[in-house]
From TrEMBL:
Highest rank taxon of the organism: Eukaryota
Xref: Gene3D superfamilies: putative rabgap domain of human tbc1 domain family member 14 like domains, Ypt/Rab-GAP domain of gyp1p, domain 3
Leader sequence residues: 1-22
Keywords: Signal
UniProt keyword Chloroplast present: no
Transmembrane segments: none
Gene Ontology MF terms: GTPase activator activity
Residues annotated as domain Rab-GAP TBC: 86-331
Protein name as catalogued: Rab-GAP TBC domain-containing protein
Length: 442
């Protein structure tokens, strides 16, 4: 009898263990379910290496449980989960809005809803202004041919657009001319963006991406539009359904990287990060740095693309999403939202460096910077990702590279071969080594 009871007890225990370890159906997903690849493009895109692990993923259930009843977010808990297993596609857009500083994790649901609504109104006003200047905006179509000449005159064979100011023979001001000259270039880039995805087989989705980029080009007149912004905007446009919300999420991403796009006739915007990369390699791998200098590669221009578009070319679409959220989680600062509003937050962040509760809400990379006293905002984790790639190819570059063309060829071989999580972990190790080895300030 006792043996039989023990047997029943064992069965009950096994059932309980099975229930406790069972996976919620929403946690289980395959990349192809959410980001399908066109059948005719399957052999032309980098292989996806990210394998979802339901136990580790920040699922919709775990995401919603991280909020208090009135809406305050336990961002530290969220960061740990992201670093462990990424974000489920159903909540990626919402999570990215926090990672990019669109919302304050300490705000309430009501406060965020009010902010969201005010931003949507502002975006609609921007869009209306752009529509007045160019009716194609918001029409569901895009422009891929120039509509004005360099001096602001309508193209002779231009039939798709009629601006009211042109109709009334009112000369366009220089801001409008510059903006209208970019619209067809944006269109040409849009129709080349993520063409392997089924998502872009729909004309409306092309138009959404074009509208966001065109309106951003008017919104940020100092930068305007530069090639590469399409690659940064596309994932956000896909993940966030509401166009206005997607615009502001992209705008916050651009606040992080816009300096890279600020180019003049004598210098490129990403030069600052290339200089930092040079300093990093000199500190962590002086032998490789010296070899690259001998090849006339000490300026690290071969890393331009990786830094400019955050490894979009080196990773598959799904792996890029995973890589970006790992980067942003590692770089996260709880004052990110207020930092975009005023410089006061920067002082607050510095003073909070010794606060244990504050540091728990920071990502790994940011926390290490605080503890080391490193406060240069130009030093990003992406720089150390590039350093990690160079370290992986160290021996091959040292033995096979006889010129910069060889370096580029070797680095091109990494496409589709990198694991995002391993790459980030290596970057964090190199960052730690750099902080330990970097020259002390005079």
């Amino acid at each position: 009898m006792k043996l039989f009871e023990a047997f029943l007890g064992l069965i009950y225990w096994l059932k309980m263990m099975s229930c406790c370890s069972s996976t919620n159906p929403e946690d289980t997903w395959e990349p192809e379910d959410y980001y399908p690849i066109r059948q005719d493009c399957r052999g032309d895109v980098p292989k996806t290496r990210f394998i979802p692990k339901p136990r580790n993923t920040l699922s919709a259930r775990r995401w919603h449980s991280a909020f208090t009843e009135d809406g305050h977010l336990d961002i530290g808990k969220v960061l740990l989960r992201i670093q462990k297993g990424g974000v489920h596609p159903t909540v990626k857009g919402a999570v990215w809005e926090f990672l990019l500083g669109c919302y304050d994790p300490n705000s309430s649901f009501d406060a965020r809803n009010q902010l969201r609504q005010s931003r949507r109104i502002e975006y609609n006003d921007l869009k209306s202004k752009c529509q007045e200047m160019e009716p194609t905006i918001g029409s569901g179509n895009i422009l891929t041919a120039a509509i004005i000449t360099d001096d602001g005159q309508p193209m002779e064979d231009e039939t798709n657009s009629t601006t009211q100011m042109e109709t009334n023979n009112i000369p366009l001001n220089q801001d409008v001319v510059r903006w209208k000259l970019t619209l067809h270039q944006i269109g040409l880039d849009v129709v080349r963006t993520d063409r392997a995805l089924v998502y872009y087989e729909t004309k409306e989705n092309d138009a959404k991406l074009w509208d966001i980029l065109a309106i951003y080009s008017w919104f940020d007149k100092d930068i305007g539009y530069c090639q590469g912004m399409n690659d940064l905007c596309s994932p956000i446009s896909i993940l966030i359904e509401n166009e206005a919300d997607a615009f502001w999420c992209f705008e916050h991403l651009m606040q992080r990287v816009r300096a890279n796009f600020k180019c003049t006739t004598s210098t490129i915007g990403v030069r600052s990060q290339l200089n930092i990369l040079s300093s990093v390699m000199k500190a962590v791998d002086p032998k490789l740095h010296e070899h690259l200098e001998k090849l006339d590669g000490g300026e690290y221009l071969f890393a331009f693309r990786m830094l400019m578009v955050l490894f979009r070319r080196e990773f598959s679409f799904v792996d890029t999403l995973h890589l970006w959220e790992l980067i942003w989680a590692a770089e996260y600062n709880p004052n990110l939202f207020s930092r975009y509003k005023s410089n006061a937050a920067a002082k607050k962040s510095t003073n909070a460096a010794g606060n244990a509760d504050f540091l728990k809400q920071c990502g790994k990379f940011e926390r290490k910077n605080f503890r080391s006293g490193q406060r240069d905002n130009d030093i990003t984790l992406t720089i150390f990702l590039v350093a990690g790639v160079l370290e992986v190819k160290n021996r091959q570059i040292l033995t096979e590279a006889k010129g910069l063309d060889d370096v580029v060829k070797i680095l091109n071989e990494i496409t589709g071969s990198l694991d995002a999580k391993k790459a980030c972990n290596k970057a964090l190790k190199i960052h730690k080594k750099y902080l330990a080895n970097k020259p002390k300030a005079a």
